[in-house]
Amino acid sequence: MPRIALKVEYHGKPFAGWQRQADQPSVQGAIEDALAKLEPGHRTIAAAGRTDAGVHGLAQVAHCDLKKDWDPFRLSEALNHHLKPLPVAIVDAAKVPEDWHARFSAVERRYLFRILMRRAPATHLAGLVWRVNQPLDARAMQDGANHLLGHHDFTTFRSSICQASSPVKTLDQLDIEEIDTPWGPEIHFHVRARSFLHNQVRSFVGTLERVGAGSWAPEDVKSALDAADRAACGPVCPPQGLYLAGVGYPDDPFSQEH
Fold first, then answer.
1. How far apart are the first and last CA of the chain?
2. Catalytic residue at 172?
3. Is residue 102 domain-resident?
4. Which tens digits make up the pLDDT trace of 205-217?
5. Active-site residue, from 52, 92, 143, 220
6. 213 in helix, strand or coil?
7. 90/131 same-domain check
8. Chosen domain end from 39, 67, 97
């Protein structure tokens, strides 16, 4: 059975998340339904990560096993035809070895979070950013974020329903930048690690927003981390504004040299 890797882009608003569910729309379910129209029988795909309801994908990666030896480009075109009008697109596809796995072969995940700072409601960006009314101090937020870098017990920033076997993770990047845009200033969070706990990024952002607003000092982030107690976490921010921005592999299946 040929194995194909898919790079997937999607708008999370109409979905209950990535993972297939019996009674609610999901990104996984949409792609599997499209695959079923190309080959008889049910096809199960595996992804690099499961995004929650409302979270977007810029470069989610999944793989599927098919009976026919599809040309990757033709497969992506056929899937995109059957995915219409849903906001899901296969932006790239590539043949991979049978033992390659979208989740277990990955060595890093990258997330982007966007905060729009303005009092007026978001219109064109509704559902794509977290809008806050007040300006935020990006430098103070970065000072707070620096306490989170490295190898730590992230119990404080872990959802109570997280199923990970250990709260200990290594955070490789948490960069914060302010960007001027035509619709108003934005704060962008660039977050990178091999793997994440459930709601870890949203817990980081919600906590650091309190630093940017002046309610917390940057050193309070270290105190919250050291507490290893979920009650010490700041507010968990909403899913709007969170994007799975990329997945890294030792040998990128989508590179031209692969």
1. 20
2. no
3. no
4. 999 999 999 999 9
5. 52
6. helix
7. no
8. 97
